[in-house]
């Protein structure tokens, strides 16, 4: 009879679907058109909202849209909502739960990029520690050959890399950042679907390191007809954290599960 074995490597790559996550931001308690500049609890911006002759042009706000559900409140951020200079990078940052250990933690969110205008922008999702150092990021760059796609690259610690994965305009995805004591792994998949590994890399975090912020950035990548009007926006929701079981705990749980499975097979 074949023996069943648990891989510690696979435990390090444990995807979000197997973890119990606590939602940090789902925007349901916010009002439509609340700005991330002081009106959405827990969030800050890289710069103040520009004030135009006919009113404020927010970098980002909460809206009710048909993303990640029907008539659902989501965060919306990007150049359709600001009047930033050409080729500028702007960002919104949400504070992650205080005193949450970086090691053996996971941060996840649902994410989409709306519209496929001829001139498009780059976006990124980054996780920082308490010192505001980026520990991992996922970067979306317009595909030069297809106006409906953004290519996916990443950074983990001091390393970076490209992938063969891409994001399609208006499609809904879920992204996961897994931080273990010796590896960091990034996953993504269609919203409500299973996830695929984007990348994994060896990392070494101090045991006292804590989660800082989730930072969503937008970079204008070309000159546009009007500054701030490429109509690309990032849409995000259901930002959550979870604890990844330490290998010893997960291993014991797996052994117990295998014991139950064997007992069932013997009956």
From TrEMBL:
The chain crosses the membrane at residues 239-261. Residues 1-21 form the signal peptide. The keyword Signal applies. Keywords: Membrane, Signal, Transmembrane, Transmembrane helix. This is PEP-CTERM protein-sorting domain-containing protein. It comes from Luteolibacter pohnpeiensis.
């Amino acid at each position: 009879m074949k023996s069943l074995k648990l891989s510690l490597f696979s435990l390090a790559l444990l995807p979000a679907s197997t973890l119990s996550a606590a939602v940090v931001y789902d925007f349901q308690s916010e009002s439509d058109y609340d700005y991330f500049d002081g009106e959405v609890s827990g969030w800050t911006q890289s710069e103040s909202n520009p004030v135009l002759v006919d009113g404020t042009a927010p970098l980002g706000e909460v809206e009710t849209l048909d993303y990640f559900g029907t008539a659902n409140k989501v965060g919306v951020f990007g150049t359709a909502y600001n009047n930033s200079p050409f080729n500028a990078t702007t960002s919104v940052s949400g504070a992650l739960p205080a005193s949450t250990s970086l090691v053996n933690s996971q941060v996840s969110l649902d994410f989409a990029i709306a519209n496929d205008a001829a001139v498009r922008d780059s976006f990124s999702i980054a996780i920082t520690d308490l010192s505001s150092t980026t520990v991992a990021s996922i970067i979306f760059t317009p595909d030069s050959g297809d106006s409906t796609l953004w290519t996916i690259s990443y950074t983990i610690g001091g390393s970076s890399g490209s992938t063969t994965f891409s994001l399609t305009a208006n499609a809904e995805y879920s992204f996961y950042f897994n931080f273990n004591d010796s590896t960091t792994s990034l996953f993504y998949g269609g919203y409500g679907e299973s996830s695929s590994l984007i990348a994994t890399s060896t990392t070494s975090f101090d045991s006292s390191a804590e989660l800082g912020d989730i930072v969503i950035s937008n970079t204008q990548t070309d000159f546009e007809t009007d500054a701030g009007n490429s109509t690309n926006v990032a849409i995000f929701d259901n930002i959550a954290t979870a604890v990844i079981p330490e290998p010893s705990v997960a291993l014991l749980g797996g052994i117990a599960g295998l014991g139950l499975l064997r007992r069932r097979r013997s009956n």
